[in-house]
Amino acid sequence: MTLVIHAIERLETFNAFEAMLARPGPWVGGFDFPFGMPAELCRDLGWPLEWKALVSHCSSLTRQQLRCTLDAYRNSRPAGSKYAHRATDLPAGSSSPMKLVNPPVALMFHEGAQRIARAGVHVPALCDGDPHRVALEAYPGLLARKQLGIRDSYKSDTASRQNGLRKAARRRIVEALRAGHPLGIRVRLSDGLERAVVGDGAADLLDAVMCATQAAWAALRPRYGLPAGAYGAEGWIVSA
């Protein structure tokens, strides 16, 4: 299969993100933030184990309340196992959704999952919704590091660290995607877009391309390629 990407749209506000989710389908989207929380954490804190109820509970907390709750839970755990993980985190190589810094994925969950839930989209294994608008959890780091084996850092939010080595790593990723590696999806970028993707030091554009590639892979598979056990409040990263 060939995935042709004609344009990449930047969504700078939550309102823009919500408007995108409301667009009529058919579409399948890959979203780079955790959709759920570890079942272990939910059980220990008495949080709901059903996804929509969990998202509703967490969205009722302020950012600071969520931060304090997770800090207290982490501090209650023994050294070496401060963070609970989802079943998908190990095969995907992803951080625990509890994490509040580097990257702050708990806050990404807090803002993102509630908007996915409110949009009425279909979230496979987690929530039935509009079958023509499908939201999947994606993770570019899985594709780049575990599936392509790119060990060099390919991005930085700090301008002074956006160097030639990182640009070379982005170019290797783009070349692999063009050849159909690692998911069997040949990615074609429109004129000028490939230069922009390789040249973007923060790699927001490249991450978007990788999320789209994971979503395309999932769209070709029964159950979007999710394993039978990907239920409850945790969710699953596609292609893991």
Provide a compact summary of the structure.
This protein is mainly alpha-helical. It has helices spanning 14-22, 39-45, 51-59, 63-75, 89-92, 105-118, 140-147, 164-178, 193-199, 204-219, and strands at 2-5, 27-31, 121-122, 130-137, 186-189.
Per DSSP E runs of 2 or more residues, the count of β-strands stands at: 5
Silhouette: globular
Counting helices, strands and paired strands, the structural category is mainly alpha
Strand order of the largest sheet: 2-4-3
User: Average pLDDT across residues?
Assistant: 96
Q: Rg, please?
A: 18 Å
Give the CA-CA distance, first to last residue: 19 Å
Binned strand content: 5-15%
Q: Helix and strand string, N-terminal first?
A: EHEHHHHHEEHHEHH
Percent of residues in helices: 40-55%
Low-confidence stretches: none
How many distinct helices? 10
Q: Largest beta sheet, briefly?
A: 3 strands, parallel
